[in-house]
Amino acid sequence: MNRQDAKLEIVIVGGGMITHDQILPSLYHLQRQGVVGSIKICALNSAPLRALAQSPRFAEAFPGQSFEASPPLDSPPEAMHPDLFKEVIAKLPPGNLIVVAVPDHLHGPVIRTALEHDQHVLTVKPLVPTYAEAVEIHRLAFAKGLFVGVEYHKRFDRRSLDARGLYRAGRFGQFRCGEAKMIEPYYYRHSNFQNWFTKDHSDPFTYVGCHYVDLVHFITGLRPVEVSVRGVEGTFPNGNIGYMWAQGQVVWENGALLSVTDGLGYPDEAAGTNDQGLVMYCESDDCAAILKHDDQYRGVQHGYIDRLAGARFRFVSPDYFRLVPWDGEGLKPVGYGFESIEALVLAAQRVNAVGATPCGCPPSGQAQGPAPTSDQILAVRRSVLTQIDERGVLATPGDSWVNELVTEAARLSIAQDGRSALIEYEPTPKVRLKT
């Protein structure tokens, strides 16, 4: 796996909404910048792949660029290929990148397949449903010197990075109580969500509320110690039962409280495409402080003459992800959604690059002594992986494992109608119902 700084070949597993909205356009731009090489997308069937290939959005923004589809685009859409991703990953040379964009409960098998074939991993959040699985993934990746990144893109929002720096400099005192919410559009109920977003697999708290639990941890460095979540059931158009709403409370190690409200029910034609935000109330010895992010509204309002955006009037958030004109062909992605993908891809490339010399430095093009051994390469790559974890900006199994404890606790609690679940860190992290 001595790829040094070569372009990363990409395999995306999953061709759904997040691939269309954020992942593929980000990778297309990195491809034309020379960071990544070929892009392959593997899906359960050909229907979503055909939609991606025929997208007018991509034809305008990335003229001449395309991906290799598995199964082929002309395959019958009713033909299902649940294990095809294994074949596609097995054919990829070691040291490349697998992007995991499948439903939450399917992350684990795809990630393990990628690592077993010596591939780096970029996965949408949450990583996996349990802490034990996160530990297994971290150990396997570290043993092989492979990077695994979790796409918590709110970490790359400039307001989040600024808040982290200011909080850790003591400017807010101590977080004491707060509220977070993320209500996704109602139309999610008519999407592929109805096929997998069922009570046994997921809920709004673990699916989108995890963004804000991660963000509070990212800003403050505090660890959660207790979680309680209550869900509101509903029926999808296809008859499946799922939690359409959820409300949770997270207790942090300093006694602070965070309430989190989530759901699939924001009006489709309302001004915002969703409703989300975070407020944190803090205090010092003799004064109070506040940190508030209105994430659904960034001060931009558009009124259109058409309904291409779903409604004639919209609050617009250019900070997350937009395709905009630039001094180049087509359009380019901007926003923290792109910067998150870019940072994770570059991290995988950085791990490949080190170890090309005995000193562990990237190659300079000049002779620097004998070629490093495989053990030397592995040692310096592990060193880089440890540095990434310790910096704590990129979400990795070694950095963001508290999120898996919260997910595990939340799933335990919601199945017990909101009974509290405790997170214990010593001697070994675990979750149990509160007695």
Describe the structure.
This protein has 435 residues and is an alpha/beta fold. It has two domains: 8-153 and 329-396, Rossmann fold, CATH 3.40.50.720; 158-319 and 404-433, Dihydrodipicolinate Reductase, domain 2 (2-Layer Sandwich). The protein is built from twelve helices and 18 strands. The protein has helices spanning 17-32, 47-53, 56-61, 84-90, 107-116, 131-144, 158-168, 193-196, 204-220, 336-353, 374-391, 402-414, and strands at 8-13, 36-42, 68-70, 97-100, 120-124, 148-151, 174-185, 224-235, 241-252, 257-266, 275-283, 288-293, 300-303, 313-316, 322-325, 331-334, 421-424, 430-433. An eight-stranded mixed beta sheet has the order 12-11-7-10-9-8-17-18. Strand 8 and strand 9 (241-252) form a beta hairpin. The N and C termini lie far apart (50 Å). The model has no long low-confidence stretch (mean pLDDT 94).
Mean pLDDT: 94
| Sequence of secondary-structure elements | EHEHHEHEHEHEHEHHEEEEEEEEEHHHEE
Q: What name goes with the CATH superfamily of the largest domain?
A: NAD(P)-binding Rossmann-like Domain
- Report how far the terminal alpha carbons are from each other: 50 Å
As a whole number of angstroms, the C-alpha radius of gyration is: 22 Å
Characterize the overall form.
globular
Instruction: Assign the CATH architecture of the largest domain.
Output: 3-Layer(aba) Sandwich
What is the CATH domain class of the largest domain?
A: Alpha Beta
Helix content: 25-40%
Class by helix and strand content?
alpha/beta
Strand content: 25-35%
What topology, given as strand order, has the largest sheet?
Answer: 12-11-7-10-9-8-17-18
The largest sheet is: 8 strands, mixed
Low-confidence stretches: none
User: How many domains make up the coordinates?
Assistant: 2
Helix count, per DSSP?
A: 12
* Strand count: 18
Q: What name does CATH use for the topology of the largest domain?
A: Rossmann fold
